[in-house]
Amino acid sequence: MKNTIRVERARKKLTQAALADLVKVSRQTINAIELGKYVPSTVVALRLSKVFGISVNEIFELDEED
Description:
By secondary structure, the chain is mainly alpha-helical. The chain has five helices and two strands.
């Protein structure tokens, strides 16, 4: 699964730690999601959507393998 979290985080001028606090997860979780090593729960995806002010579909995109 591809995602635009790093780009959206940069637009909001947020560190991984700051975003993690807003989404109520660890910084390591944000890092793993950004790297595509972890697929977030629906709740976390919705929280990210709320923080960034965009839809979940604008943040996450399925790969051909998914």
